[in-house]
Fold this sequence. Notes:
Blueprint: H1 2-45, E1 51-52, E2 55-56, H2 72-76, E3 94-109, E4 114-126, E5 140-142, E6 155-158, E7 160-165, E8 173-177, E9 182-194, E10 206-215, E11 223-227, E12 234-236, E13 245-259, E14 263-276, H3 279-296, H4 307-330, H5 340-382, H6 388-399, H7 406-411, H8 427-430, H9 436-444, H10 448-465, H11 467-493
Parallel strand pairs: 3-11, 3-12
Antiparallel strand pairs: 1-2, 3-4, 4-9, 5-8, 6-10, 7-9, 8-9, 10-14, 13-14
GO molecular function: chloride channel activity; extracellular ligand-gated monoatomic ion channel activity; GABA-A receptor activity
GO cellular component, one term: chloride channel complex
Domain Neurotransmitter-gated ion-channel transmembrane: 285-490
Amino acid sequence: MDAVRMPYLNRTLLLLSLLLLLLLLLGQSRTAEARKHRQRVRRWTGTEETQKHGASLPKKPPDVTKSRKTKTEHLLKVDDHDFTMRPAFGGPAIPVGVDVQVESLDSISEVDMDFTMTLYLRHYWKDERLSFSSSTNKSMTFDGRLVKKIWVPDVFFVHSKRSFIHDTTTDNIMLRVFPDGHVLYSLRVTVTAACNMDFSRFPLDSQTCSLELESYAYTDEDLMLYWKSGDESLSTDDRISLSQFLIQKFHTTSRLAFYSSTGWYNRLYINFTLRRHIFFFLLQTYFPATLMVMLSWVSFWIDRRAVPARVSLGITTVLTMSTIITGVNASMPRVSYIKAVDIYLWVSFVFVFLSVLEYAAVNYLSTVQDRRERKMRERARSQSLPCTCSISQTRTMTMLDGTYSEADTNSLAGYTEEPMVPEDEPEEKQKVPEKSEHMVVHLSMSTESAGIKKRKSLRALNIIQNTHAIDKYSRMIFPGSYIFFNLIYWSVYC
């Protein structure tokens, strides 16, 4: 019997010990949870105390700016004031300081006459309605959601075409409020504004553009807009650069703007000066135009009888110059005045065109000369002269009297019918005598006055008919004139 009761008693004791152990664990877990709860409550209420070496530390005063139980609207008393009116309404004008940090100058468009700029625009003013108590004198920073509930300056960009506030990943707006009511309002904005450009010296020009800021609703009696730190209110990134321009100077100015219907307004200016890089236009415009002019001069060294070669060369240079002029004007606004590049291109075009006209004149005179020679040869064949040797010899003797050279004599050696008689003399003198001895006497026994007239007429005839001389003079006149033009052009515009 005792042997049966012993295992049962052991089981009972084991179960009791397990129950006691379980109760002990539950009690410890509840104690730990209660301790954590008390610490959490102390942390939220600001009454947590720590002891070190048996001494208690003084309590830290609560900061309402860091209290999670206080809403922003209640702290700034947004619901207690009417923020549709400016601060100190009815009193003196509220001063609003402005400073700008230029992030990038994105593009300059000559066709649209505008520029695009990305900048950080910051406003500074004081609104006592937003003051709050803070033992640490620390400011509070908010995003753009609070901006819609308070008063902010209504600054806009004068002469702007497009502008927007960046919103990636949220609206790029920052509002910082200080305990004494001072406010910093900053936003990141990209604006495209008009710029009045003068292209009379293009592409050797410099342009000055301005970005203008002004209050839209408040006149100078309600809002005084000013640069917060003078010229130091404008800061730029040193890495700002443009492909076609060199940024020379950024500076700030301010003045009053008057509108006849509303009054006077404070206006702030961001001025910057740009100087155009000339190297791009030298490669794309000036060098090709100069090469086309020089190429047109090659025709002066080509034989005048090579009509296809000289005509095709002249037409090619003229069409190429027309293409260059069209390409330059396509990227420019349609202004009503002459630009510097227009002067250079059109003068170059005139030189190319004159080279074509020069060959037209040479070809025409050559044709006239050939026609005259043909008529004289035909007339000589129709005449029956008994002895042309004596006539030729007498004519040669007359031409070699010191007035004409051997080359002139050779050029007229084939003439058999009155080559020495001017065209403007009466027809009676130009008739060929029926007898050869009369021609010999007419060529060799002329009077002194008639000889002088014949020599003058032959000089003019030789200059006109000698087409090689026109090309020879053109080889010197055309390059010399073009070089002289370049000297004047670059000395005036550079």
